Known about the structure:
The protein is mainly β. The protein is 0% helix and 50% strand. It folds into four domains: 9-54, no CATH class; 61-136, Immunoglobulins (Immunoglobulin-like, Sandwich), CATH 2.60.40.10; 143-220, Immunoglobulin-like (Sandwich), CATH 2.60.40; 227-286. The chain is built from no helices and 27 strands. A hairpin with a 4-residue loop joins strand 11 (112-122) and strand 12.
Amino acid sequence: MVAGNPIPCVLGAEGHVTCGYRTRGSEIEGLQTVLVRAIDKAGNAAEAQTELSLDFTAPQVTFTRQPPALSQQRSALFEFQSDESARFSCALDGAAPVPCLSSASYEGLADGEHRFSLAARDEVGNATTLEAVFVVDATVPETLLDEAPPALTNQNPVTFRFSSDDASASFECSADSAPFAGCSSPLELSLREGTHTFAVRAVDPAGNVDATAATASFTVDLSAPRTAFAPVPDTGAPSRTIAFSADDPAATFECALDHGLFSPCSSPFPLTGLSDGEKLFSVRASDPA
């Protein structure tokens, strides 16, 4: 009799008795008393008892270490434990389960989703399973600088446009060797006159950073050149030469007479066939920016 339930027994060879018992679902876990009564043909009876431990609860398994949901590593390490003595088996991506102790490690994982399955079975056969899903992304994104100022510009602010071959990537930017900081495209920067550098790099959600940032170097020139005339003697002659200069040695000139159209010119500029009367000679300078 177990937990108040009678069980059948069979007398075997050499006087051994075998009793079979199938749980009925109403038993309580823990120690139960097993009572055995033997009765011979004459009606004489004898009893003996012992204790039987009933266990219907599957082991509780937890991961103590596992990869993050999104990992930039091509390796994975799992560590796990059970609240009771159990045998473990491990499998990755649908492969056949193999025995494992308290950890399992994998190398050379491809980019993409992976599924780790852990099964635990206690000493009486109660079993449980646990799964972990994670994504490997070990590919570094590429950064493209789609638009940047020309090598010499008179625009301020200046505009940059950039992109990546990884649509999920975000960006970090640096101007003039400053620390990289988050940014987005398009980006406008207001800069002082002078030479500048700009760098942008892509960062994907797994933390992979483009080690070869896209860069641009350029000069901002916001100052118009100033033009000056050399002294022009008033001789009254119908022909004369006018000399002029600019404070920017790289400047070029355009000239006009009496409100006419400006056209390229250089100094000194000859004027011939002038008619009588007041004349207006204009010159303007343009720098390479």
